[in-house]
Amino acid sequence: MEKKIVRIGNSLGVVIPSVFLEELQLSQGDLVEVEYHADLKTVTLKNKNTAPSADHLDRLVRNAVDNYLKELNVGK
User: What is the value of pTM for the model shown?
Assistant: First the structure.
């Protein structure tokens, strides 16, 4: 979906379609986390209240790897 950049006061912005806002459970005044990924030249928008934290994702990956290694009888 293509969207135009629009002027918002002294800044520029993009209007986010309501279907995306509903899916992200976002409404006016909510906090979001905006990340820029230079290697992909993309921007990610996350609902600050519902998106998993980097620490949470790190723990999930570590647990999955630990469980896999235990199944293979490798490691600890």
Answer: 0.56
